Amino acid sequence: MNTEHWLPVTRQSDRETVGYLEPLHSDYSQVQPRSVLGHPVSAPSDFVTGEDLLLERGISEVAEHWRLTDPQLPNALAILEVSPEGIIVADALETKALVPTERFEVEWPDLIQRLVPWDEPTS
Q1: What is the pTM of this model?
Q2: How many angstroms separate the CA atoms of 77 and 95, rounded?
Q3: How far apart are CA 7 and CA 17, in angstroms?
Q4: Rounded distance between C-alpha atoms, residue 6 and residue 21, angstroms
Q5: pLDDT digits (tens, 9 = 90+) for 73-121
Q6: Cα 16 from Cα 18, distance rounded (Å)
Q7: Which residues pair with 90 in a beta bridge?
Q8: Is residue 2 classed exposed, middle or buried when 0-12, 13-18 and 19+ CB atoms within 10 A define those classes?
Q9: 8-state DSSP, 113
Q10: Burial letters 32-57, b for 16+ CB under 10 A, else e
Q11: Distance between CA 29 and CA 107 in Å, rounded?
């Protein structure tokens, strides 16, 4: 997907990118707010509403645990890096323990949502 028209939304305090606004019309009258991963975070909205939503939600989701839909892996994953070159993830527990572990790359933006939030298995 061509992301050249996506507008990054940045916090004033630290200039951190907290998401993107994908224009649905050439005049940006309606946009799709997207997380830093490229996932839609709400229904389409007007520009100001989308921007406010992204600023309010921030990037805390990057610190959460994730799983890949393909390949299916048994353990939770941590996001190590997010950039236009890709999203790098690895086993969350091994990463926390500073143990070398296999890394997986997910294309950015993750429009097909290969990365989904981790749900703790129930016993």
Answers
A1: 0.89
A2: 9
A3: 10
A4: 5
A5: 888 999 999 999 999 999 999 999 999 999 999 999 999 999 999 986 6
A6: 6
A7: 78, 103
A8: exposed
A9: -
A10: bbbbbbbbebeeebebeebbebbeee
A11: 28
